[in-house]
Amino acid sequence: MSYPVDRPAVWFVTGASRGLGLALVRHLLASGGRVAATSRSAERLRTSLSDLDSDRLLALEVDLVDQDAVAHAVSQTLEVFGHLDVVVNNAGYGFLGAVEETTDADVRAMLDVQVNGTWNVLRAVLPAMRAERSGHILNISSILGLLAFPGWGLYCAGKFALEGMSEALAAEVADFGIRVTIVEPGYFDTDFLTSRSLQQAEHPIDAYPAIRDMIATHQAMPGTQLGDPARAAAAIQTIAERGDGPLRQQLGTDSSGFARDRAASLAAEIEIARELAVTTDYVRS
Q1: Distance CA 246, CA 102 (A)
Q2: For 255, what's the count of Cα atoms within 13 Å in the CB-facing half-sphere?
Q3: Where are the domains of the chain?
Q4: How do the pLDDT tens digits run along the chain, 285 residues long?
Q5: Which residues pair with 180 in a beta bridge?
Q6: Residue 150's CB: how many other CB atoms inside 10 A?
Q7: Following DSSP, what letter does each residue of 30-93 receive, concatenated?
Q8: Is 148 exposed, middle or buried (0-12, 13-18, 19+ CB in 10 A)?
Q9: Phi/psi of residue 118, each to 5°?
Q10: Nearest to 227, CA basis, from 197, 183, 181, 264
Q11: Under a CB-based contact definition with an 8 Å cutoff, are residues 183 and 141 in contact?
Q12: Contact 90, 14 (CB under 8 A)
């Protein structure tokens, strides 16, 4: 356990008004948890949770790219609940398009949310967690933070960056009793693949018909995904309560299978590359 068990846990969840974030907040409130949840629309969040007791919910309207706004939201959480135990960096969106089709503005917007937004949250929460010498940070990545598919280059870039930062963070904060988990979901039955959460390159290029086909396939996928968001929410709570799991935790049989295959292919690539790799050292007498 990476946070005290003698008091109710306080969770701080970003991107909470839809998808896995909403499923998690709903699950935590239903199981008696106390939750500070951020969204670009606090009203939309409250409406989505109107059937639950809201006394333990602090709905916060926050632009995660605004460092001062994030710091204020964390201060409000500490003021209302007194402490902070689990942070879930979940905010994000998808993007489909070839690397060549992706504009500078697309890249900056994605990295602002996936990387800078997460970094703003971490800078705000870590002082309190270090003072308590406890806490658990769960950064919601994707199986596409471990491997890449054509047409997902920008999304993968954001998730790969998130995973690299998270791995460094885990080593930096371990001595303070703070744990870090990278969560890698596969396909879950949320609105992630709908126009509300998934953007596309504005000016597609005729040279990439396979990517157009891939996009059409994904647009037809909602409702057929393997993953159950409610079960994912329960799994995320288990990760935090258990406190001793792996650095990377896949969610879904698809994610687990892709990760296993990626590990095997990476090991094979390293062996193939080794013969040339070892020729680049100095030859010293």
Answers
A1: 34
A2: 22
A3: 10-252
A4: 677 767 789 999 999 988 999 999 999 999 999 999 999 888 888 888 888 867 899 999 999 999 999 999 999 999 999 999 999 999 999 999 999 999 999 999 999 999 999 999 999 999 999 999 999 999 999 999 999 999 999 999 999 999 999 999 999 999 999 999 999 999 998 888 888 889 999 999 999 999 999 999 998 888 889 999 999 999 999 999 998 999 999 999 999 999 999 999 999 999 999 999 999 999 998
A5: 137
A6: 11
A7: HTT-EEEEEES-HHHHHHHTTTS-GGGEEEEE--TT-HHHHHHHHHHHHHHHS---EEEE----
A8: middle
A9: -65, -40
A10: 183
A11: yes
A12: yes
Residues designated as active site: 17, 141, 155, 159
The CATH architecture assigned to 10-252 reads: 3-Layer(aba) Sandwich (3.40)
Location of structure tokens 């258990």: 242
Tell me the C-alpha distance between 61 and 57, whole Å: 13
Taking Cα atoms as reference points, which of 34, 163, 33, 141 lies closest to residue 89? Answer: 141
Q: Give 262's Cβ-side CA count (13 Å radius).
A: 14
Tokens of 43: 């009203």
Q: What is the DSSP letter of 116?
A: I
Alpha helices (runs of H) in the chain, residue ranges in sequence order:
19-30, 42-48, 67-81, 104-111, 118-132, 153-173, 209-219, 229-242, 253-277
End-to-end alpha carbon distance in the chain: 52
Q: Is 16 left (phi over 0), alpha (psi -120 to 50) or beta?
A: alpha
Residue 101 burial by Cβ neighbours in a 10 Å radius (0-12, 13-18, 19+)? buried
